[in-house]
Amino acid sequence: MSDYTLNTANELADLALAEAMACGDDKIVDQIGEILGASSQSLQEAYLTAVRVRRAEARARELLAASAAKRGA
In total, how many domains does the chain have? Predict the structure, then answer.
Protein backbone atom coordinates (compact mmCIF):
# COMPACT_ATOMS: atom_id res chain seq x y z
CA MET A 1 0.00 0.00 0.00
CA SER A 2 1.34 3.41 -0.88
CA ASP A 3 2.38 6.02 1.65
CA TYR A 4 -0.27 8.32 0.21
CA THR A 5 -3.01 5.77 0.87
CA LEU A 6 -1.87 5.13 4.43
CA ASN A 7 -1.40 8.82 5.22
CA THR A 8 -4.80 9.68 3.78
CA ALA A 9 -6.49 6.84 5.64
CA ASN A 10 -4.89 7.91 8.92
CA GLU A 11 -5.87 11.53 8.42
CA LEU A 12 -9.46 10.61 7.54
CA ALA A 13 -9.70 8.28 10.53
CA ASP A 14 -8.53 11.04 12.87
CA LEU A 15 -11.00 13.52 11.39
CA ALA A 16 -13.91 11.08 11.38
CA LEU A 17 -13.39 9.95 14.96
CA ALA A 18 -13.04 13.55 16.12
CA GLU A 19 -16.26 14.50 14.34
CA ALA A 20 -18.05 11.45 15.76
CA MET A 21 -16.99 12.48 19.25
CA ALA A 22 -17.98 16.12 18.64
CA CYS A 23 -21.45 15.33 17.27
CA GLY A 24 -22.07 12.20 19.34
CA ASP A 25 -22.87 10.05 16.31
CA ASP A 26 -20.57 7.22 15.25
CA LYS A 27 -22.47 6.75 12.00
CA ILE A 28 -20.25 9.28 10.28
CA VAL A 29 -17.31 6.91 10.65
CA ASP A 30 -19.24 4.17 8.84
CA GLN A 31 -20.55 6.56 6.19
CA ILE A 32 -17.04 7.65 5.29
CA GLY A 33 -16.00 4.01 5.04
CA GLU A 34 -18.84 3.38 2.60
CA ILE A 35 -17.94 6.41 0.50
CA LEU A 36 -14.34 5.29 0.30
CA GLY A 37 -15.33 1.74 -0.60
CA ALA A 38 -17.37 2.95 -3.54
CA SER A 39 -14.24 4.39 -5.16
CA SER A 40 -11.21 2.73 -3.61
CA GLN A 41 -11.25 -0.56 -1.77
CA SER A 42 -7.60 -0.08 -0.80
CA LEU A 43 -8.29 3.28 0.83
CA GLN A 44 -11.39 1.89 2.53
CA GLU A 45 -9.44 -1.03 4.02
CA ALA A 46 -6.66 1.25 5.25
CA TYR A 47 -9.22 3.67 6.74
CA LEU A 48 -11.16 0.93 8.53
CA THR A 49 -7.90 -0.49 9.90
CA ALA A 50 -6.85 2.97 11.11
CA VAL A 51 -10.23 3.42 12.84
CA ARG A 52 -9.99 0.00 14.53
CA VAL A 53 -6.45 0.68 15.72
CA ARG A 54 -7.42 4.03 17.22
CA ARG A 55 -10.47 2.58 18.95
CA ALA A 56 -8.42 -0.32 20.32
CA GLU A 57 -5.78 2.10 21.59
CA ALA A 58 -8.44 4.20 23.33
CA ARG A 59 -9.89 1.11 25.05
CA ALA A 60 -6.42 0.00 26.15
CA ARG A 61 -5.61 3.43 27.56
CA GLU A 62 -8.93 3.49 29.43
CA LEU A 63 -8.16 0.12 30.99
CA LEU A 64 -4.68 1.25 32.01
CA ALA A 65 -6.06 4.46 33.51
CA ALA A 66 -8.73 2.54 35.43
CA SER A 67 -6.12 0.12 36.74
CA ALA A 68 -3.87 2.96 37.85
CA ALA A 69 -6.81 4.71 39.53
CA LYS A 70 -7.72 1.51 41.41
CA ARG A 71 -4.31 1.27 43.00
CA GLY A 72 -4.25 5.01 43.73
CA ALA A 73 -1.56 6.01 41.27
Answer: 1
